[in-house]
Design a protein that fits this description.
Strands 1, 4, 5, 6, 7, 8, 9, 10 and 11 form a nine-stranded mixed sheet that branches. The chain has a two-stranded antiparallel ribbon with strand order 2-3. Helix 2 runs antiparallel to helix 4. It has one domain. The longest helix has 19 residues. The protein is globular, with a radius of gyration of 16 Å. The chain is an alpha+beta fold. The protein is built from four helices and eleven strands, in the order αβββββαβββααβββ. The two termini are 30 Å apart. The chain binds zinc ion. The site of zinc ion has 5 residues, from strand 7.
């Protein structure tokens, strides 16, 4: 049922957007060819997302539109206000991973990563209008820790999984956000 509703919403978007080039006013993206395989990897429908809520992605991200919408909610409700006027305001997210056909933490035999379904995006730094940046690696345990912890906790809700430096050694230098649905509510570490 949920999938059906999502499909209907997408069809409605395609209908009103003509070529479905702008899935919402805050998301600049193009629909791209579906990613099919190998194996259970894939993104269909797939979008190439370049900018969300006026904030550029450092590289175009191949994700599902639901992932882009979660990013938009987090940017509008948390990230943009949390950064405020610092450095002239938030202008870019340094994206270090989006679609990738791999297992969790790339471990052989582990479960398929949400990255392999277009459900996830990894962000390592926040770039301001004046070129200054806050990185997860340097900022988490330093002067920028208040801001970074705010960005991390505000993602919990829009995203179903939020991982950062407190999660494990694989997440020392970036935040992992994905739209997986967990039974007990969002999983955020
Ligand atoms: Zn990740």
């Amino acid at each position: 049922m949920k999938q059906f509703i999502a499909l209907m919403a997408l069809m409605a978007l395609a209908a009103c957007g003509g070529g479905a080039t702008t899935p919402s006013s805050g998301i600049i993206a193009e629909k791209r060819a579906p990613v099919r395989g190998p194996g259970r990897c894939g993104v269909d429908p797939a979008w190439t997302v370049r900018e969300v809520a006026g904030v550029r992605l450092s590289q175009p991200a191949t994700i599902r539109i639901e992932t882009a919408r979660a990013l938009e909610r987090w940017l509008v409700n948390t990230a943009i206000p949390a950064v405020g006027r610092r450095g002239g305001g938030l202008t870019e997210l340094k994206v270090v991973a989006h679609y990738s056909c791999r297992t969790r933490n790339s471990r052989p035999g582990a479960r398929l990563s949400e990255h392999a379904r277009g459900n996830a995006i990894d962000i390592s730094a926040f770039v301001m209008a004046d070129g200054s940046r806050v990185t997860v690696l340097d900022g988490w345990r330093s002067g920028d820790s208040t801001l970074l912890r705010k960005l991390h906790s505000g993602a919990c809700g829009p995203f179903g999984t939020v991982l950062g430096p407190n999660a494990d050694r694989h997440h020392q230098d970036h935040f992992h956000f994905d739209v997986a649905n967990h039974r007990g509510g969002p999983y955020c570490r």
